[in-house]
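Q:
Just now I want nothing more than another pair of eyes on a protein record. Here is the record:
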Amino acid sequence: MSWCVRVYHMLVMFTALATAHCATARPDPVKVSDTLSVVRELVSDHSKIAVELVEANLHSDLDFYPDHRGLYYRLVHNQVPVLNWSPLGLETDSQSFVSDLKIRDVQKSTFTHEYDLAHGKVSHVKKMAERFLLAVENPLGQKLTLEFVLQRDAVAFRYLVPGNGTVTIRRELTGFRLPAKSAGVMQQYQEASKVSPAYEYFYEKVKAGETDDGKASIRKIFQLLVGFTGLVIFGSDGWAMPALFETPEKKALLITEAGVDANHAAMHLTAKPSHNLYTLEWPSEKEGNGVGDSLPQGSLPYKTPYRTLLCCDLKTIFESTAITDLAAPLDKKFGGKLPAWVKPGKATWDWLSYVATGDAARQKEYIDAASQFGWQYTLIDANWNKWNNNNAEPVIKELVAYARERNVGLWLWYNSGGPTNSVTEEPRDALSEREVRRREFARLQKLGIKGVKIDFWQSDKQSMLQQYLDTLADAAEHQLMVNFHGSTMPKGWQRRYPNLMTMKAVKGAEWYQFPVFRGPNAHDSVYYAFTRNVMGPMDFTPLVFEQAYKQQKITYAHSLALSVIFESGVQHFADNADDIKKGFRKLTGEYPFVGAFLREVPAAWQETLLLEGNTDSHVVVARVHEGVWYVAGVNGTTSDIHIRQPFTFGVYGKYRAEWIREDGSGDTLRYTETELHTGGTQFIETVIRPRGGFVLKLTRVPG
């Protein structure tokens, strides 16, 4: 072969590679080539976010899309694209809304979200929004309604299928195509195993469009070492939601879902996005021990969950209530008002310190600690039912009475299975069947138990979502609060069932007990604040001081700050509470001001503000309860970060400012007290040390 032929082939190869790259990174066309295209725009009176829709064949402009007319949307904020043209469509067992769709009519209405929450980042929501109902028709004349909701913090949409009878949803074509060079903070979706999916991988920084093959390839090497346990430590099955992105124009976007109920399955994002296009995946057949169908079925008329896009800066995303805005309202069983027996609070918990549940004597030590520290609860974890030769009820009665005398309520742990898991921790087989569960809850109510922690769900199938919601309903009838552990991602269910206090769905502090896999580091705190905790209450089980410092150099002040930065209706403060030489007794003995702070810090908030931060470095939060403001910040980097924020929030006046920060080394603390005045002329100013943090309590001075 001559040199000129070789050069020619090299040029052809180079051109092909360049063309392929351009296809991947190609922006939307300025104008769609399809001369028959129909473009519509949904514009909000209350938001700068707009949605554009097009009925068109986009193949000539974007050749990775099919060569037929389809329905596409894109998201625009202040005239800047946040999502590029992305597909819409739905297939059922009897209808196809995929190609040659036409929008026959658009109806717009304005409404107000207004409701109260028993716990969370706010206590009351009142927000204007617009609803757009798009009448869509396929070539056979079959009809579908596409509902869009636009509000100041989000865009959400769902499919409404009319008719009578039943339907199976076969495929949802919805996609999310990010602009070229967007960056993401994402979590891989765990492959089904004995204890997964449970949303317990760390979030990581990625380039939009990257695949999740990393853990899958590692698994091939190392999975054999842990396979005998039944765990899938390294397996992944796509990307989880929420997924946070930043576009080149510095627009932030959180992709997630809301309004998910027992009519559908929870979904995740595809493992291998092509051309920055993320599409939706059903739960694996293997989830939940293979029990239940992956494809959802329901009665017509049928509503899918909302595909929800929080936009378009980190402050808006962090403060957003869109997940509960779009959830079902307060259940009728509560009579139109929040139940008085739902009481947020803080709890002692012995399992993390010992990786086992202690006997009744140890539980009394933890009850004593909760009473001494002014906390409301003690959680008794797995296998308590084995006490007293498997006759634990007399012991539980004794502990309930002991705790009641000290103004402490008790929570008990349960296994969610049933046939849906093979985990042997007990009690199990008590909550999976409704009649058995209702008898058990009635027994607990009679005993005086305040709440239940229910673990090992490991399925996002429709049948499992039904069990979640049935469990909440039954628990509410017996005045039991609930913590879902080893669970799916929060869906806003706490609006409908205020007794849902928290959910895990995070790689939390218990992983400090398994250092071969590493526990959360300082940067994880920042990632969680902007991703997982946006979705709802998070049972991270914070305040593991010594282990976090020794393993990850997280300072004590950083750990303390997580009691404010992480929101959970019940905060399980996880450090040791029965030994004066370590844990809370040692810490509060050395630093009485820490005990005072933890006695007073709330577990529910009336308002939440993001003061500053970004996913690369730090987060600073302000929350208020009954007029007292708590400000907290953490640093995820190895460099100092200078904070200087004007004090503009709160009722105008003078405030007592109580600071807790590092004092010398990271395992020491110091307390200082100053005064600050609102109005913007004075500043909340400090330096957050590497992997460090601070808390600041602001109490208004009368007069």
The radius of gyration is 26 Å. Residues 3-25 form the longest helix (23 residues). The chain has four domains: 30-174, 177-297, 346-505, 507-703. The longest strand covers residues 102-116.
